[in-house]
Amino acid sequence: LVTRMRPFTSTIFAEMTALAVRTGAVNLGQGFPDTDGPAGMLAVAKDSIDGGLNQYPPGPGMPVLREAIAEHRARYGTNYDPDTEVLVTVGATEAIAASLLALVEPGDEVVLIEPYYDSYAACVALAGGTRRSVGLVEEPGTGRLGLDVEALRAAIGPKTRVILVNTPHNPTGTVLNRDELAEIARLCVEHDLVAITDEVYEHLVFDDVEHVPLASLPGMAARTIAISSAGKSFNCTGWKIGWVCAPAGLVGAVRAAKQFLTFVGGAPFQPAVAHALRNELEWVEGLRTSLQNKRSRLAEGLAEAGFAVRPSEGTYFITADVRPLGFTDGLQLCHELPERIGVAAVPVQVFTDHPEQWQHLVRFAFCKKDEVLDEAIRRLHKLN
Ligand code: PMP
Ligand code: GLN
Predict the structure, then answer these.
(1) Domain match, 317 and 360 both
(2) Ligand 2 proximity of 8 Cβ (cutoff 6 Å)
(3) Can you tell me the distance from the alpha carbon of 333 to that of 350, in angstroms, rounded to the nearest whole number?
(4) Which residues cross the membrane (predicted)?
C-alpha cells in the first residue's frame, strides 16, 4: 500500500475492540456508552422513519436542526445564523475532515495538541498538510495534563495555517481553562491562524469545571470553526450527527468539501437531535452527573489496583500511569491485558508523535454501567 494513507491503515479502537471481543474482555478501550439516549429523542427518530423522512435531507442539514444548533450555541454567548453559519455533518469526524480538507493546502502546517484524537493526523495527511504536535505537560503537584504555552508558541511558524484544539480533551480528560484558551486565542490572532475546535464532550465536564468554547473569546468568533456532535451528549454515537458553526465564509468552504465526501446524511436522526438539543438538556445533566460518579469510581478502583491515576476533568476517559505496577510500555500492556486479565484499554502513545514520552500512560473509558466498571476493577486487581 504505497499511498499517503500507509501509516493509517487501522485504528487502535477497531484493533482493541476486536481483541476484546475475541478474548471476552471487559472493553474499556473504545469509548461508547452501554445505555441508550433520552426516550423522547429515540421516539422522534422512530416517528421520522415512519413518517417517511428517509430520503436525502438538504445539503446544509434540515432547517429545524440548524436552528436548534444555533440556539444551543447561543448559550455560550456565540451567535450563528442558522442559514449561513451552521452546517450539519456526518458526525464530528466528517466535520473535522471537511474543515481540514477545505483549509489546508499542501505544505501548510497544522498544530495539534498531543496526545490527539486519531483522525486528526490522518486528515491532515489527506489534505497534504504537515502536522506539528505540541505535548500537554504534567502540572507539578496535581498531575493534570495542561497546555505548554511556550511549546505552542515555538511550534507556530510562517507555514502554520490552522490549530486544532480539542477540549474537553480525549484521551486525557483535561478541560482547557480560560487562561489556557486565552493564550491560544492570543497566538491565533497574532499569527492569523484559523482555529478548529473539537467540542464533542462539551457537556461532559465534572466537578466545578466549565467548558469554554474558544470562539467565545475576544477576536476568536471570526476565525474559529466550532465542531460538535450529538453522539456523546445524547448517548447516540452510532447516529453520526455532527455540526460546524463558523462565519459564513468558513462554513461555505467546509460545505464545499463536505458535499463531495458524503453529500448529506442521517435524515431521520436530524429532527431527533433537534428535539434533543431543545428538550433534553436536563437529561444530559443527569448523564453528566452519572459520568462524574463513574469517573470517580474508576479512578478509585485504578488507584487501589496500583495505577497512578491522572486527574480527569471531563469526557469518557481517564488516564493512568502503569509504572507503579512495574510496567514500562503501555502499548505492550494493552496488547497483553485482554488475554491476561480480561480487560481492554487503549495506550496513549498511539495518539502521539512522541511515543517514548507517553508510553507510561494508558486510557480507560468509564462510560459503562457500574457493574461493568466494578468487574473491570476486580480483574485489574489481579495485576498486583
Ligand atoms: N473527536 C473526539 C475527540 C472524539 O472522541 C470523537 C469520538 N469519539 C470524535 C471526534 C468523533 O465524533 P463523531 O462520532 O461525532 O464523529
Ligand atoms: N471516540 C471514541 C474513542 O476515543 C471511539 C471512536 C472510534 O472508534 N473511532 O474511544
Answers:
(1) yes
(2) no
(3) 13
(4) none
